[in-house]
Amino acid sequence: VQLQASGGGSVQTGDSLRLTCEDSGDAPTSYNMGWFRQAPGKEREFVAGISWSGVRTAYGDPVTGRFTISRDIAQNTAWLSMNNLTPEDTAVYFCTSGGGWGRGTQVTVSS
Question: CA 3 from chain center: how many Å?
Answer without folding.
Answer: 11
